[in-house]
Amino acid sequence: MTQPGAATDGGSRAAGQRVLVVEDDHEVAQVISDYLHRAGYSAVVVSDGAVGLELANQTSPDLVVLDVMLPGLNGIQVCHRLRARSQVPVIMLTSMGSENDRLRGLEVGADDYLTKPFSPRELVMRVQAVLRRTTAMPPAPSSPVRRVGDLEVDEAARTVTKAGRALTMTNKEFELLAFFLDHPGRVFRRDELLREVWSYDFGDASTVTVHVRRLRSKIEDDPSRPTALVTVWGVGYRFDPPGGAAR
């Protein structure tokens, strides 16, 4: 049994990509570790938020599975502090039933979440989908830097500036912006964006809503009155490039 704060290796590091599991329920943590190991991942389990944060900063895992209810630092605090230093993908686990509680994790930068009780197989599928999106080598863009109004998007360096000011974006925010840049003027439903950007055939579409809101807060002059990333009521979202098409 994992002791509080202790780390256990769920498989050889040579077995595959490294997943850090921060979960204080020992039975749940063991099930997650076993399923990840069977899928070819190397899983390290810790049961304390502060220890998980320190280990993530020290070892740079490929992905973090993070419970919300943790001793010491809770999962929301861990994710918030982790995002200040790293863009490592984070999948949050929560037993909270309120949508507002679940969405707090997305607000602080989590890439996805699952509500307990959950299927371990679904968690592995989510891990695979997130890692596939974040580690796949994207095709080289036709232009090294795309300019849309006062936005400059460097897809090779994965950087965005607005009026010369660097914007801090999570991996998923960047991917969502890049997808909209590739499809200007087209309306996408939330389930379509979930499939195209998250690679999920099913899931909670509110994930998309939160990421759109966060993206607006960074690229719009007035996020409360968006002019680029607009809502088409009853349908979804459309990107209207400021100043015309990207060049």
Question: Could you please describe the fold and organization of this structure?
Answer:
- The protein is an alpha/beta fold.
- 38% of the residues lie in helices and 20% in strands.
- The chain has eight helices and 13 strands.
- It has helices at residues 26-38, 49-59, 75-83, 99-107, 120-135, 171-182, 190-198, 206-219; strands spanning 8-9, 18-22, 42-46, 63-67, 90-94, 112-115, 146-148, 151-154, 159-162, 165-167, 187-188, 229-232, 236-239.
- The strands form three sheets. Strands 1-3-2-4-5-6 form a six-stranded mixed sheet, sandwiched between helices. Strands 7-8-9-10 form a four-stranded antiparallel sheet, with no helix packed on it.
- The longest helix has 16 residues, at 120-135.
- It is globular and about 55 Å long.
- The protein starts with 7 loop residues before the first strand and ends in an 8-residue tail after the last strand.
- The model is unreliable at 6-15 (pLDDT under 50).
